[in-house]
Amino acid sequence: MGDKKTPLIKLVRRDQWLLMMFLPVFLYYLIFCYLPMPGILIAFKNFTPGHGIFGGDWVGLKWLDQFVHSRYFWRLLRNTFLLAFYPLVIGFWIPILFAICVVEIKNSALKRFTQTVTYLPHFISTVVIAGMIINFLSPTDGIVNTLLASIGLERINFMMAPEWFRSIFTVSGIWQSFGFSSIIYIAAIMGIDQEMYDSGKIDGVNKFQEVWHLTLPSLKPTIVILLLLSIGGIMSVNFEKVYLLYNGATYETADVISTYVYRQGIESQNFGFATAVGLFNSIISFVLVYIANQASRRVNDMSLW
């Protein structure tokens, strides 16, 4: 007779401390992601507060049709995509390059200092970051405009200029996140077999060849997985940051689906319409990550599922 399977209770007792560590994460997703899912019904109903999510008349795809044919649809879709696409294209590779450079630092004190300085912005509140950006770019006493004036250039009211919003959002986002995002790449590089590098040195490869032919190929699985996860969140632009930085003058390039949902749902109390728009955004995100996953599976034979 074969060995009996380990009873569930024994497995729980064996891994009880690991399960305790996982419990807060499980509760977070259960409470804030899974339990509210029945609320999707509001997107297909003429919802009235007080009647519950199962009350109200069924309207089908009325709210979604109204959004798709509204004058704001293409502007919101374009802004949402671009404000996520620019940081992805420009900023995705910076943590990889930074991780490679950090690993090459031989002085341990300098390495720790560099990592600490670049990690810190990630832990700064979005409200504080937005305040710093507004103060630095102030047209009267901001450091950027002060420097422009000192070299004889005209002051620019950056926060009221639609053409500057995407650049400000992208650059500040990359600065805030690249250090912390590099942690996983540093860990992956440290896990690469050192014998590969020793063999490369014997064969006479230079540092560039070492990075291109040894380090990056070894990082490929990590890069692909993180890229797929990033594509999955491409429609989830940082709502808090956009909301704190944008204004009526910059709606043309700054208004995104999440801020539009906030105005419609919270400020205008058009809950059914706002839920339908949010559901549309989630569906687009799912389609994007599915397509990216299938393409990665065919090209690199690597995928999330």
UniProtKB/TrEMBL annotation:
Q: Which Pfam families match?
A: BPD_transp_1
Which GO CC annotations does the UniProt entry carry? plasma membrane
Q: Where is the signal peptide?
A: none
Q: Which UniProt keywords apply?
A: Cell membrane, Membrane, Transmembrane, Transmembrane helix, Transport
| Keyword Transmembrane belongs to the record | yes
Record-annotated ABC transmembrane type-1 domain positions: 77-292
Q: Which superkingdom, per the lineage?
A: Bacteria
- Provide one Gene Ontology biological process annotation: transmembrane transport
Please give the name of this protein.
Sugar ABC transporter permease
Q: Recall the taxonomic lineage recorded for the source organism.
A: Bacteria, Bacillati, Bacillota, Bacilli, Bacillales
